[in-house]
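Ticket #429: bound-state structure for uridine-diphosphate-N-acetylglucosamine.
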Amino acid sequence: MEAHTGDQGVLSLTGGQRLHGSVSVRGAKNSVLKLMAAALLAPGTSTLTNVPAIVDVEIMAELLRRLGCTVTWDTAAGVVEIDVPERLDHRADYDLVRRMRASICVLGPLISRCGEADVAMPGGDNIGSRGLDLHIEGLRRMGVDVVNEHGYLVATSAQLTGADVWLDFPSVGATETLVMAAVLAQGRSTIDNAAREPEIVDICSMLIEMGAQIDGVSTSTLVIDGVPELHPVTHRTVPDRIVAGTWAVAAAITQGRVEVLGADPAHLTLALDKLRSAGASIEERSDGFVVEMSDRPRAVDIVTLPYPGFPTDLQPQFIALNAIADGAELVTETLFEARFRFVRELARLGADVQTDGHHALIRGRTSLSGAPVEATDIRAGAGLVLAGLVAQGRTDVFGVDHIDRGYAGLVEDLQALGATVTRTDEPSS
Ligand code: UD1
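RESOLUTION: The complex was predicted; output attached.
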């Protein structure tokens, strides 16, 4: 499998097929990018396995190369090797950071290893303001001087010092930045109200394998005792719960039966419970789960919250499900204010959705009707593809480059499950 290079493709779907079969899930995008950054913390060669063939991995590989690393990626095997030099460059340029907001995750490791970091302010997903104040405030407490110069965060520190940090909000990115700064700082750091997503647990596990001392992993209080150095490791990326959850919704929305392999159902407890409430039967296994749906789904209310709450990254997929469900339901988005922009596209398929601030009211329709639509971010793209699977006639999803950032081999997997879908550079007429 090759990673798509982010072309401006179109996915053309003809709705109506029930999906049947098995699909395998690889490692999480939202973990592997941070694990690649964590490798910077130890000179030598670290190896990551279960790496998904997505564009963002290539962007992160390029970023690490510019910092002085040698990076090789076997996309078929899902293995990335990162050879980290003793001396790193400390500048992350705008041309890469603007393509991927997650690039900000090199900030913590660079300040740890180099005592300085120049990281361009990120762009990335088009889903709201997504500030960096919690990253910056936490670093300041650890003795880092941070200024904004010409669009770059310029961070310097003579000596990183452990500190107590209370996050106003359990930000995933800020937790990662602060953990990666604290592992090599002098003394003890406590991060309270830390995020505890499975991807945070994954990065903490890798850091502990590298020799870091972190207590409280998977709780909201992380206690980190800085160590003088870390060593390189081989680490397997945690499965992608969002991709797994997307396949679960695909089975439910098409009234099919899909076996999702390589996923951890414990990371999707709430989402799978919601699907049960919608009428699906779900069999959980040690290596994944099976979702089966035989009737029209029932409407389910959703409130997105930090883990273990309902993931915002599955919100558009559940809105798509609700669009054809029996009943009306309320979806409340608490994390990203602009995420409902995708609803306007869903309305083009005939969905009955009203939004007001953080809330969306969806009245389920018996059917949707295919139309051209535009994916505005990764998960919006996933939601539109799911809607296209059940819309009558043809749906062309533009902006496939967004979907490529999170879903490797999506078309091939959909085809193997029986969907009528093709990918072209332009829609055939
Ligand atoms: C990560 C995920 C993203 C997911 C999100 C929430 C990656 C690459 N992306 O994003 O897919 O949707 O977690 O699960 O892992 N905030 C601030 N100040 C800060 C940091 C965050 O105000 O310093 C706000 C953001 O604007 C946003 C909210 O907090 O509204 C959530 O952000 P955060 O948890 O940091 O998410 P990301 O790490 O950006």
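RESOLUTION NOTES: The chain has two domains: 8-25+239-426, 29-236.
TICKET STATUS: resolved
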